[in-house]
Design a protein that fits this description.
By secondary structure, the protein is of the alpha/beta class. A 7-stranded mixed sheet has the order 5-8-4-9-6-10-7, with helices on both faces. Helix 2 links the parallel strand 1 and strand 2. Helix 1 runs parallel beside helix 2 and helix 6 packs parallel to helix 8. The chain is globular and about 55 Å long.
Length: 274
């Protein structure tokens, strides 16, 4: 993102997400900044930090300090600490056969970011991506706690397939995904056709393809499932009745939620695409 305030907001939302994914409450944060002071004005740094602070305020997180290093390339992130009772942690390795899988943000931020770098992203796609990238997983995390989630993780750099694989292997199960049920951000399909696919997407595909069945991993329709996400949604496993309650309540509260698959007993392949 060229706008430094938005850049800061996305970085903060991304950093806090891991705490939400475990069902915890984020409490404190420290800024981590690498800044090329010799080539960028300090106003940019101030705007980045202000953007991050605005998201921390939204999340009720206290900024307790930070570290700033002069570097050749701009980098900004946060170290976030949260609180949760040990017996209340929602792990990514406890999904159960019969659970339904729910995703709380559409996919495609990596593809859209690549198009932004290539100056080929439509304004509508950029605006929608920014909205999702700066949306905290706060409400979705609260609802998954209420609905007794079996397992959860956030979808980030390994893409949906990577994080599904991690959940399946850790839980000793397999996962079946329904391709037509997986939501995408606006413009993603068209940008893929224009070649706006990040290299990380192909690296993810090469790595996780051996774990898949049901579809040829080279099928272009599967590309968004490997797309590395920034500040992605939660991938939540819930018992069927709990999943139905989650979806119904999400609709009432304006929380995005899509049922995208089901957890199976361990099969020959880790991930099945239908």
């Amino acid at each position: 993102m060229d706008d430094p305030f938005t850049f800061g907001r996305i970085a903060a939302a991304n950093a806090i997400s891991d705490v939400y994914a475990m069902g915890a409450r984020p409490v404190t944060a420290m800024n981590l900044v690498f800044f090329p002071a010799c080539s960028l004005p300090m106003d940019i740094l101030r705007e980045i930090l202000a953007g991050g602070q605005s998201v921390l305020n939204e999340a009720g997180v206290c900024l307790v300090g930070g570290h700033t290093v002069e570097d050749d390339e701009l980098k900004y992130g946060l170290s976030v600490t949260g609180l949760i009772a040990p017996d209340a942690i929602i792990r990514n390795s406890t999904a159960r056969p019969g659970d339904l899988l729910i995703l709380t943000k559409p996919l495609g931020s990596g593809i859209i970011a690549t198009a932004i770098k290539g100056e080929m992203a439509p304004a509508k796609a950029v605006d929608e991506a920014v909205t999702w990238l700066t949306t905290l997983n706060l409400a979705a995390a609260g609802l998954m706690r209420e609905c007794n989630a079996s397992a959860a993780t956030d979808v980030t750099g390994f893409g949906l397939i990577g994080h599904c694989s991690e959940m399946a292997i850790g839980s000793g199960v397999s996962i079946r995904l329904r391709l037509t049920a997986i939501p995408l951000m606006s413009g993603v399909t068209e940008l893929m056709a224009d070649g706006m696919v990040p290299a990380g997407c192909y690296r993810n595909r090469d790595h996780y393809a051996p774990l898949m069945s049901g579809r040829d991993a080279a099928d272009e329709a599967l590309v968004p499932l490997f797309d590395p996400q920034t500040s992605g949604g939660l991938l939540i496993a819930l018992a069927p009745e709990d999943a139905r309650n989650f979806l119904a309540e999400a609709g009432k509260r304006g929380i995005f939620a899509a049922q995208i698959g089901v957890v199976l007993p361990r099969q020959a392949c880790t991930i099945e695409i239908t």
